Amino acid sequence: MATDILSIAIDAWLDPDTPPHLRSRLGEFLQGERSSPLWTSALERLEDDHPENTALPPDLKSKIRSAVILRRVQGLMLELARRLPRRTSLRQSLALVMVALAELQEREVTVASLQRAGGVDANKEPIFGAGLARSHISLLEEGLVSSRAKASPTDDRARPLTLTPAGRDLISDAISEVS
Questions:
Q1: What pLDDT was estimated at residue 54?
Q2: Which of 69, 88, 99, 163 could connect to 167 by a Cys-Cys bridge, CB 3.0–4.6 Å?
Q3: pLDDT for 50-97, tens place per residue?
Q4: Residues in the chain with pLDDT < 50?
Q5: Which domain covers residue 30, as residue numbers?
Q6: DSSP-H helix ranges across 32-118
Q7: Would residue 118 count as lying in a domain?
Q8: Helix, strand or coil for residue 147?
């Protein structure tokens, strides 16, 4: 019953024919229901179907946009955590996602390019420092990433990285669960 009421309130809030005073009251009601999965779905619909909706205050639009982004990131991180070995670190997961993104964009990625793309953390330390070599080896051992022959005989960081079929399946499955 509560889900039905929430769904009706969301639909009325998104309806451009809803009078502004009622839309404002519905917005106040819905703000109290933010933990509901239905709310997240409505926020995504609002962003996708009603980008022109100017009836919402800019700060609420910003909160909605942030909530939608964080919900998607959370979903992807949870799916990766469920599928990757327990000992996989956040940075190893990040490296895997960066290799997957580069592959989707048809860009070559190497350990060195991951280190550059990672940048530095709040302490001005590299996100992917010397530990990336261990992360790279761990992803290789798990069969998620493969490393082609050295492009440079003197620099192991120049070795191109690609997802293996198992790595592609893992990323694809995680994205499917989030979508």
A1: 46
A2: 163
A3: 555 545 566 666 776 677 677 778 888 988 999 998 888 888 899 999
A4: 1-3, 54
A5: 2-56
A6: 37-49, 58-83, 90-104, 111-118
A7: yes
A8: strand
Instruction: Decide: 166 and 100 in contact? Cβ < 8 Å.
Output: no
**Rounded CA separation 3/85 (Å):** 36
Structure-token match 């969301």, residue found: 10
For residues 117 and 171, membership in a common domain is answered with: yes
Residue that terminates a domain, selected from 11, 35, 56: 56
Among all chains, which residue has been given the structure tokens 């229901």?
Answer: 33
Is 95 a member of any domain? yes
Q: What is the CATH number of the domain that holds 150?
A: 1.10.10.10
Say what the pLDDT of residue 166 is: 94
Number of domain units in the chain: 2
Closest C-alpha among 115, 119, 117, 98 to residue 162:
98
